Amino acid sequence: MATRSATSRRIDGLLTEYGESHQNATNKFIHWICVPVIVWTVTALLWSLPVPAVFETVPYLNWATVVIALATVYYLTLSIPLAFGMAFIGIVCSIINGAYDLRLPLWQTALAVFVVAWIGQFIGHKIEGKKPSFFKDIQFLLIGPAWLLHFLYRKVGIKY
After folding, report:
1. Would 158 disulfide with which of 19, 95, 150, 153, CB 3.0-4.6 Å?
2. What is the rounded distance in angstroms from the CA atom of residue 81 to the CA atom of residue 77?
3. In the prediction, which pLDDT does 4 show?
4. Is pTM, for the whole model, over 0.85?
């Protein structure tokens, strides 16, 4: 992990370390498109999985919302403001998934878009000349979306 002082927060170290392999402007641009798309596709794929009967008694309870809740708990350990932002994104993804009504089943659309978005990510990292951060530590799959969100927070003056 990146070197940091004893007083710095864990989230700051994670965002800094993630940012080390995301310096190239083209790679950053690709991430601004592909990371949110990947977040949606993951929720859509999870949304599409069969659920136990007990889930069916609660509206919107499915594997996607369970994973969104667990991810929110993880984000709460890092930053309360980022956790609220990521929970909001999860809610937006859930609304999109619940409203999905195209010709193809949700999972098929999500899978196709997921593959294309990951191809974009790997192209960005090829341009960058650095491996994706999650090859070093799997938690960076959750840090990527928070990394983008922290830029938005800084732009509008929200402390994370």
Report:
1. 153
2. 11
3. 46
4. yes
